[in-house]
Structure formats: structure tokens, C-alpha cells
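TL;DR need C-alpha cells for one chain.
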Amino acid sequence: MRKELIIGLFAGLIVLQIVLPVSMIAKRESTLKNGEVFRFKTVPVDPYDAFRGRYVAIRAEINKVSKPEGVDLKYGQKVYAQLFVDENGFAQVSQIAMRRPKDSAYLIASVTYPAGRGNDVGLNLPIDRYYMEEKAAPRAEQVYREHSRRGDKQDAYVIVRIKDGFAVIEGLYVGDQRIEDILKVNIK
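>> reply
TL;DR here they are.
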């Protein structure tokens, strides 16, 4: 009996090790295929993850919103950032909610500061890393920084697919070109 229990637990562990990564991949692929498309303006940041490799560190320009009346927020608290598309075609946060919205697109975000200057709430949106091929990432980061500074050259943005609050970055753009295409031209 004990031997059968050990074999059963071992088999369950093997199944779990297969199902968990497959479900994570399936969720990302489903979002990329069926998610609603949003463009987010970005600003620069610095980039390396020992486990996942090189990436371009990005931060959405829209990272704060007005605090809802009568709501006490805490650092790190999960909120739902409701989205709309502005007249320039970029995503903006219209408001935050404590409950999952039923009739509008949203991102699951966390609070970085509960209420700062005025009545603004800082948000950490889950679109902060664009992973790339190891050798191309440093050059991509350099090009991205040149085009994400405030001023004349601020024309960097990401295309993000969102489904049920889950976001997947589809592409990083400078001007209207994917960063990978710009790097190919610069290398030749």
C-alpha cells in the first residue's frame, strides 16, 4: 500500500510539472490570439534578469490615476485599472476599481503609492519587460532610450494584448517600426 501511494504521488508530481508550464504557455498564447489590442506610450528604465535573460525594460507612461472617493488604498494592493483609447490611439487608465469590471477592458495592477501629490494613485502595470534575443537586447535598449525620452523623439510604444486583465506585450515599436526591424536595418 505504501509503495502504491509513493508511486501515485510521484506520478502526480510528474503530471503537475508538465501541466503547469503548458497552462502558462497556453494562457499567453490565448491572450496573444484573442486579446484586445492596446498601444501604451513608454518611458525608459535598466534591464537584466538572471533567469529569463536580456530584455528591454519599459514603463508605461500612464502609471497614475485619480484616487476613487471613499476608498483606502495600501501599497501593493491589487486593483483593476480600467482602460480606454484616447484620440491619439493610445491606452489610458480611466479609473481604478476594487472589483473586476464586467463591461470594460482592464489590467490587473498594483498600487505603488496610495495617494501622493493631489489625489493621484501610482500604479504598477504588468507591462514592464520586452524580452529579446540576448545579443540584440543591449542595442535595442539603446535605440529605445533614444526614442522614449520626453520631448521631440518620444515615439516609442508597445502593442499589448489584454484578455481578462492579463497582458502580453506583442511588440515594441519605435516610430511605426518594430524594434527588431530597426535593428536588422542598423546591422546591415
